[in-house]
Amino acid sequence: LSTYNILLPEYKNKKIKNRNLVIFPFTKSLKINNDDDITDDFGEGQTEEIYINLIKTKFIPDLKNKSTFKEIQYLNSNKNIDFEDVYFIMKDSVKIKFRIPLSESLITYNDISADYILFINKLEVSRVSQSGYAPTYGPNGFTGGASITEYLTQEIEFYFWDNLEQKIVSYGNRTASTSFNFAMTQKTWYKWFENLAQLVLEDSSFKKW
Q1: Mean pLDDT (whole number) for 88-116
Q2: pLDDT digit string (tens) for 4-51?
Q3: pTM summary value
Q4: What are the beta bridge partners of residue 150?
Q5: What is the CA radius of gyration of the chain?
Q6: C-alpha pair distances (Å), 93 with each of 2, 7, 73, 89
Q7: Which residue, of 63, 188, 194, 203, has the greatest Cβ tally within 10 A?
Q8: Residue burial 92-124, b: 16+ Cβ < 10 Å; e: rest
């Protein structure tokens, strides 16, 4: 599956700023395949809770810094909202199923209507190893051998929802990767969330210009 963002035609060349955003993760949208890396770097605890805290303390500030939103909040619980399933078609003709709010469902945060909502359909976190060739120079010229590069990767399926107009602004499927040598650290995760914020905002109406 290719990774990219698709911006709906009515929002092309439209710059939206000074609005608020709510991040809405669907239940069971988060899948962590490398629990040990999280607890090694951030201490013991429930890995999902640690990760959600990283979304609040790292991803949201990165997203705000790179976007035109004036405020971004994380919705801690899925409210009583009615949804319907629709299929979004990607550029390679692959269909991805998303859940969108029914037209009469206006989503609020702390009793204030959200201007826009970032719905997270899927978040899958993994550690991936990739083998390669590492050339070295010695007395007999260039030699080399196998090398392994480690990556922290995350696949995200998402869409931005115009909560006032009740329609989709953009949607996408992206993979953020950050390479590291020897051992993963907190800095690896922080860089990775920064990359993720950049990818989510690509080709959108909310990216700083």
Answers
A1: 76
A2: 788 999 998 888 999 999 998 876 788 999 999 999 999 999 999 999
A3: 0.84
A4: 129, 180
A5: 19
A6: 10, 16, 33, 6
A7: 63
A8: eeeebebebbeeeeebebeeeebbbbbbbbbbe
Which residue type does 105 have? S
The secondary structure of 166-198 as a DSSP string is: TEEEEEEEEEEEEEESSS--HHHHHHHHHHHHH
| Cα 169 to the center of its chain, rounded Å | 16
pLDDT mean over 127-135 = 66
What is the average pLDDT score of the chain? 83
- In terms of Cβ atoms closer than 10 Å to its own Cβ (0-12, 13-18, 19+), residue 77 is exposed
Q: Which residue has the tokens 């392994």?
A: 148
Residue 147 has pLDDT above 50, yes or no: yes
φ/ψ (deg, to 5) at 198: -60, -45
Q: Report the alpha-carbon distance of residue 18 to residue 11 in Å, rounded.
A: 16
CA dist 150 → 40, 131, 170 (Å): 16, 9, 31
